[in-house]
Design a protein that fits this description.
With 206 residues, the protein is of the alpha/beta class. It has helices spanning 3-18, 86-100, 165-185, 187-192; strands at 27-28, 53-55, 59-60, 69-71, 78-81, 112-125, 129-141, 146-158. It has a single domain (22-30, 45-192), classed as Rossmann fold (3-Layer(aba) Sandwich), CATH 3.40.50.10610. Helices cover 28% and strands 26% of the residues.
């Protein structure tokens, strides 16, 4: 086998390997709850409770509900889709984080109800995984009066293996956790649930 043929074969193998983690057309991913951030977003030793809260199923209000992200390492970028319900994923995720952070969450009748509309759910992979999840969040009392209403945005950044479904899952899951972190740091949200203010962190002397 001559040297030129060997070089051609090596180039073909290298090209095939470099594109092994890429797909032509949209790539479908399942939505998997896989946060790597601590679900107790208020910190250990911080006790909550407040008025029991029910988390209702969110609705999807994304401008582009067909995609959940893109692999932008190549041009054109490969869109990412999912057969799973994005709005259900976000509401179920918050229903995991809030009780882990001390909020009294119930599935039955409740004096406080958390409702939401997902505005953004997107993870972009380039050199890193960058995710953003945004939702219009409302807290209502049992008479339907709105006690809290705000758009809350959670962002997450991850490093990891290229085209990894696991890294995508960690990124969008952590972004949902970040929404809960912002909510529980918001005095108006805490007041709507009857939660006291967060304690001021103690700064240890140097």
């Amino acid at each position: 086998m001559n040297r030129l043929l060997l070089l051609v074969m090596a180039a073909v193998v290298a090209t095939a390997c470099s594109g092994a983690d890429r797909v032509d057309g949209p790539r479908q991913l399942p939505l998997v709850w896989k946060p790597t951030d601590d679900l107790n977003v208020v910190g250990a030793g911080t006790h909550s409770a407040g008025t029991p809260l029910r988390v209702d199923l969110f609705v999807d209000r994304r401008a582009n509900s067909a995609t959940i992200g893109e692999d932008a390492r190549d041009r054109p970028a490969t869109p990412l889709t999912s057969a799973d319900q994005v709005a259900a994923f976000v509401s179920h995720g918050l229903a995991q984080v809030l009780p882990a952070s001390g909020v009294a969450v119930t599935e039955g009748a409740a004096r406080r109800v958390l409702r939401g509309a997902v505005k953004t759910f997107f993870v972009r992979e380039d050199n890193t995984y960058n995710g953003e999840v945004a939702a219009q969040i409302q807290v209502q009392d049992d008479a339907g009066a709105v006690l809290y209403d705000a758009v809350v945005v959670g962002r997450s950044k991850r490093w990891g293996r290229s085209a990894s479904a696991e890294n995508y899952a960690e990124t969008y899951s952590n972004a949902v956790v970040e929404i809960a972190r912002h909510l529980l740091a918001d005095p108006q949200f805490r007041a709507a649930l009857g939660l006291g203010p967060l304690p001021i962190p103690t700064i240890k002397p140097q």
